[in-house]
């Protein structure tokens, strides 16, 4: 029998780029949300912007998500968890109403950056980056490698917790690549945009040369939020690990073409110092089809994502 649909969900990292979209997706379904944030001010700003949901949206401030036991006192009445921040499994295991926990990981925990490009190769939820723990924590390791290691071993610890403790809830993890799209969380200005959106906006603002994309895989934040909620609600997906991603490769050259084509003002700002019209050649694929098949998520086109983000930033901040 599938678990009952949750009625009161805890979302961590709720005032962040991805977490705020997850909150909105849940509220739109009539599901009450308890939102954990490091900043009460941002929480109040989000709540004030959603007066129609005031009775079903509450914020709790947690200054340090890394402290042991910090989530224990906010689990009462919670029957589902979407975790876009730090470790929470021990607290969730103490709440018997919780039947599933969705954890946001990263494609960094999946990809092997030393693997030769192979357009016929597809990364799935069964793949892990090959970094050892010793490599990840070595003082000689650079920040990018350390980040990949931190994502891998944090997620492995979550799966290890499930194996050791056998809690009453199921775990689903999502490992998304670069995430773009309009913002619904409090943002004071262009300088406060999350990194991926800031890079995308820099093209519209005149970056020359264009940024270089390390990978061609991406996802729209709204589709990623939908994947989180469906991973919580759908029967039969407990214990799964997904790499949600559009099947359409992206590059910043493609983004520049879109911006110039869709915004008349961009002809004066976007550099011409690049090869226009060149399509990206993906070095590999991601198994977004599993997300469509099992979670029912249909992915937006890159053009829609670019237009929605650039149009929003131009209107609000530029």
UniProtKB/TrEMBL annotation:
One of its GO terms (molecular function) is oxidoreductase activity, acting on the CH-OH group of donors, NAD or NADP as acceptor. The keyword Oxidoreductase applies. The keyword Ribosomal protein does not apply. Transmembrane segments: none annotated. Keywords: Oxidoreductase. Pfam families: Epimerase. Residues 9-236 form the NAD-dependent epimerase/dehydratase domain. It comes from the Eukaryota. Coiled coil: none annotated. InterPro entries: Epimerase_deHydtase (IPR001509), NAD(P)-bd_dom_sf (IPR036291), NAD(P)_dehydrat-like (IPR050425). Belongs to the NAD(P)-dependent epimerase/dehydratase family. Dihydroflavonol-4-reductase subfamily. This is NAD-dependent epimerase/dehydratase domain-containing protein. It comes from Petromyces alliaceus.
């Amino acid at each position: 029998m599938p678990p009952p649909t949750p009625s009161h969900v805890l979302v961590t990292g709720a005032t962040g780029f991805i977490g705020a979209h997850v909150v909105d997706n849940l509220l739109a379904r009539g599901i009450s949300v308890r939102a954990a944030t490091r900043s009460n001010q941002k929480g109040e700003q989000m709540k004030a912007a959603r007066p129609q949901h005031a009775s079903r949206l509450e914020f709790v401030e947690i200054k340090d998500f890394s402290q042991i036991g910090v989530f224990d006192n906010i689990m009462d009445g919670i029957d589902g968890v979407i975790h876009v921040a730090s470790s929470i499994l021990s607290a969730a295991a103490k709440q018997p109403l919780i039947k599933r926990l969705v954890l946001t990981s990263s494609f960094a925990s999946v990809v092997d950056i030393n693997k030769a490009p192979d357009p016929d190769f597809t990364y799935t939820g069964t793949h892990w980056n090959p970094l050892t723990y010793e490599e990840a924590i070595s003082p000689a390791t650079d920040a990018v490698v350390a980040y990949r290691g931190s994502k891998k071993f944090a997620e492995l610890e979550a799966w290890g917790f499930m194996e050791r403790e056998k809690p009453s809830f199921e775990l689903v993890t999502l490992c998304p690549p670069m995430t773009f799209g309009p913002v619904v969380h409090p943002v004071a200005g262009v300088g406060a945009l999350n990194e991926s959106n800031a890079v995308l906006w820099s093209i519209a603002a005149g970056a020359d040369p264009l940024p270089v994309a390390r990978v061609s895989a991406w996802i729209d934040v709204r589709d990623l939020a939908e994947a989180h909620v469906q991973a919580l609600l759908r029967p039969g997906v407990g214990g799964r690990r997904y790499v949600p991603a559009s099947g359409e490769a992206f590059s910043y050259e493609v983004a520049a073409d879109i911006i110039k084509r869709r915004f008349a003002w961009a002809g004066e700002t976007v550099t011409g110092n690049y090869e226009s019209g060149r399509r990206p050649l993906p070095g590999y694929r991601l198994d977004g089809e599993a997300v469509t098949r099992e979670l029912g998520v249909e992915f937006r086109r890159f053009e829609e994502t670019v237009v929605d983000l650039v149009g929003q930033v131009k209107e609000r901040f530029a």
